[in-house]
């Protein structure tokens, strides 16, 4: 689901209230949910209200939704979007979530283009801090992408927050997942090849996000998933922009290349990523 620009539905003739919240505008929608910007009718607190349609959830999506609820209910971390409340109304389930005024990282990239390496380091430190929580709970997000990373404010010093755990899943360290899901441009090759996989699919996604932050475009493209996979497999060297490559920290290039290793066995694990010298050299995670 993409949480992007705000649009006010044409059918809104006046204030629409759901539970204790007044709907202000639509932030985004997916196949089984809609996200609204809303305001608590008494306190005035702005929130993101995720409206989930249970009738549209198959067994696998229901399991993912249960995982999302259980995980978000159990964590309170600055780099993971907060869940304040859950309630039922009009046959739907509503998740009351933290509203992030800075929009998504995808929107940030569209407006800023490629990002300076020092800012990228800070962003990746924050994502690492969030992924440490997922890792400790044995949660695979399975849809990490710029659209699902939100900013507290639309500035370079924003707090980044991982959101939309609608495809997330608990996977025991000795087990694997098999369901093909996610967004193709950020999907690990083992998923594209219908192979079983583990938490390293999220590491690939982080590598794709890191590459896009540095270059302003994703590492691999393709008109179809088959072509995308072919382009990944035929790649001998990541297509870094020659405008930035000479000035990039070699440790940054190393981390990106190792996150985007086609063979999961060669790919950085979470611990290897989080302890990588590129992240540890300056500063700590927010």
From TrEMBL:
Keywords of this entry: Kinase, Transferase
GO BP terms, alphabetized: autophagosome assembly; regulation of autophagy
Pfam families per the UniProt record, alphabetical: Pkinase (PF00069)
Any GO molecular function: ATP binding
UniProt GO cellular component terms: autophagosome; cytoplasm; cytosol; membrane; phagophore assembly site
Domain (Protein kinase): residue spans on this chain: 21-279
Entries under InterPro entries matching the protein: Atg1-like, Kinase-like_dom_sf, Prot_kinase_dom, Ser/Thr_kinase_AS
Record-linked PANTHER family: SERINE/THREONINE-PROTEIN KINASE UNC-51-RELATED, SERINE_THREONINE-PROTEIN KINASE ATG1T
Name of this chain's protein: Serine/threonine-protein kinase ATG1t
Organism expressing this protein natively: Juglans regia (English walnut)
């Amino acid at each position: 689901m993409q949480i992007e620009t705000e649009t006010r539905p044409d059918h809104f003739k006046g204030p629409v209230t759901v539970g204790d919240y007044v709907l202000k505008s639509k932030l985004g929608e997916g196949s089984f949910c809609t996200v609204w910007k809303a305001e608590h009718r008494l306190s005035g607190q702005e929130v993101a209200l995720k409206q989930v349609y249970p009738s549209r959830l198959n067994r696998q999506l229901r399991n993912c939704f249960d995982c999302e609820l259980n995980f978000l209910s159990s964590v309170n971390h600055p780099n993971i979007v907060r869940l304040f409340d859950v309630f039922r109304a009009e046959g739907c389930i509503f998740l009351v979530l933290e509203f992030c005024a800075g929009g998504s990282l995808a929107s940030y990239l569209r407006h800023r283009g490629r990002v300076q390496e020092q800012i990228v380091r800070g962003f990746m430190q924050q994502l690492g801090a969030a992924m440490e929580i997922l890792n400790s709970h044995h949660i695979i997000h399975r849809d990490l992408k710029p659209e699902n990373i939100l900013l507290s404010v639309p500035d370079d010093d924003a707090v980044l927050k991982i959101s939309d755990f609608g495809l997330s899943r608990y996977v025991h360290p000795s087990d694997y997942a098999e369901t093909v899901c996610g967004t193709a441009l950020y999907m690990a090759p083992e998923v594209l090849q219908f192979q079983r996989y583990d938490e390293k699919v999220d590491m690939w996604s982080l590598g794709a996000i890191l590459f896009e932050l540095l270059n302003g475009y994703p590492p691999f493209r393709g008109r179809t998933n088959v072509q995308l996979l072919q382009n990944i497999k035929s790649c001998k060297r990541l297509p870094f922009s020659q405008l930035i490559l000479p000035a990039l920290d070699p440790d940054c290039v190393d981390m990106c290349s190792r996150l985007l290793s086609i063979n999961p066995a060669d790919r950085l694990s979470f611990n290897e990523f989080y302890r990588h010298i590129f992240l540890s050299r300056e500063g700590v995670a927010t």
